[in-house]
Amino acid sequence: MCICCTLKCSSFKNMNQNCFNNIGDIIADANYITEKALLPLSAIRTESDKTRYEKKGYLIGYTYDEWPEKYPQIPRDNVYYVCGLNVGTVYYDKKNVVYLDLRIYGREMLSLSGTENYEETMLRAIHKQEEHSRKGEYGHLFLAMPDGIRMDAMNHLLDLEGPTERFYGNFMAQYATSNFLCKNISKRVLNALGKSKSDKQKAATQERLELLYGDKPVITVYRGEADGSTDYQKAMSWTPDINVAYFFATRLGKNAKIRIGKLYRKDVLEYFPADGDEGAEEEIITMPGKVKNVRTEYLLDADSEDVLRLAVGFMERYTFWRDETARLHEDADNSLNAHDALHAVRVLFLSMVLGAHEKLRPEEMEALCAAAVYHDIGRTHDGDELDHGRAGAEYYHNEATDVSPIAEAVIELHCAEKEAVERELARRFSGRDLESAQKILRVLEDADALDRVRFGLFGMGSRDGLDVRRLQCDFARKLVPLAMQCLRGLSLGD
């Protein structure tokens, strides 16, 4: 049986690959249109021009000559067509960094206050933005722009401002709220950033760093990448929080990877602390190439050869234990959502992948499977329940036909304090059995922790989510994408 048949449908791998790709494409398309994607109205002179660009996905409502007949007060040389998810007509005055969605789709208009007032309404909005530009209130201007346009607009802002403290402040303010801002950052803007930061701004950055990192001269930094990510050698964005790196590596695209490197504190251009806010990203900005000694940790999913190779050897036993899980949980308390039968199945599968990697003996793998299936069977609710391990062990002892003392101990102790666990295992076992019990417990704990992706990642919107730093096995850290796929695709049967 192949791994695909393990999961809800035979197209599990493709389903999840498409899921990754589609999400990535949607977000990128919605957020990352650039000036190159803007079609100037001046390019549409004839009906054949309209037809040609409509075939490319643009909604062409007017030619260059038709526009002043309909909207004579809106300068036609600042009018552009956009295709993709942002299809429509926009106003973009590059010189003044003014961008507005005109809410025109072909010849149809999304009216604000009636068609007779439309042009007047849009003119007021344009003039308001022009006023913000004259006053140097650029934050108001960037709010109206997709991320990709913001980066292009930074070049025009540099023309207006020069490499000033205000330019630096505006760049970093937009950077902190944009996902794709630096994807096409120009060398000109990069060079300006280093020159524009004032002594006051530099001191403020160092103060924020000192609060968490003291006087450490070197900081370990991480970066999450997948297909379509900016290569780390050209990237400005890093993080000292490995969970943040995993968040970005696994949320978009395939072929996820984590970059790990060292950065001299003096080379930190800007630092954005998380400030204790859930979902806030702790981020470090530095000039490309400043992170040294970079190594790469490649992550694994259901398509990975390593996972497929490991799974081949245990699929038959996985099916048996999956069916056993469904049987045991038939009468389970319906109030259990986070620790239900599906949670047990996911922990079972992840345990077997980890166990196969650790080269567990057949009898050790069977004990591991039993522990995975029964580890939460003693729960009565989803909250903190310190005795559920002991209750689960008792249930296993009474229910199983061939009780493994090691499995029973692992079920009981998987939720106990670490020091107490070590003492109790040493009391019950010795020699090879002790080594087996320790190894099986470690594997189960990592598999159980990996399924915390159902809550998210620690610090990224969830305090109950997976904290990658707590995984004990190096190989377990590679399996975060697989854990996410299991969450979407594993079921209790074919």
Which structural traits does this protein have?
single chain; alpha+beta; Hypothetical protein af1432; 494 residues; elongated; 3 domains; 5-stranded antiparallel sheet; 21 helices
Q: Report, as a whole number of angstroms, the end-to-end distance.
A: 12 Å
Compute the CA-based radius of gyration: 28 Å
Q: What is the makeup of the main sheet?
A: 5 strands, antiparallel
| CATH overall fold name of the largest domain | Hypothetical protein af1432
Provide the CATH top-level class of the largest domain: Mainly Alpha
Task: Characterise this structure.
The chain has 494 residues and is of the alpha+beta class. It folds into three domains: 30-193, no CATH class; 198-298, no CATH class; 305-489, Hypothetical protein af1432 (Orthogonal Bundle), CATH 1.10.3210. Helices cover 48% and strands 11% of the residues. The protein has 21 helices and eleven strands. It has helices at residues 3-6, 12-31, 47-54, 67-70, 118-135, 138-142, 147-161, 165-175, 187-196, 199-213, 242-251, 305-312, 315-328, 341-357, 362-374, 388-399, 405-413, 418-428, 431-450, 474-478, 480-489; strands at residues 39-40, 79-82, 88-93, 98-105, 108-109, 218-225, 237-238, 257-264, 268-272, 283-286, 292-298. Strands 1-2-3-4-5 form a five-stranded antiparallel β-sheet. It has a three-stranded antiparallel β-sheet with strand order 6-8-11. The protein has a three-stranded antiparallel β-sheet with strand order 7-10-9. β4 and β5 (108-109) form a beta hairpin. α7 packs antiparallel against α8 (165-175) and α15 packs parallel to α17 (405-413). It starts with a helix and ends in a 5-residue tail after the last helix.
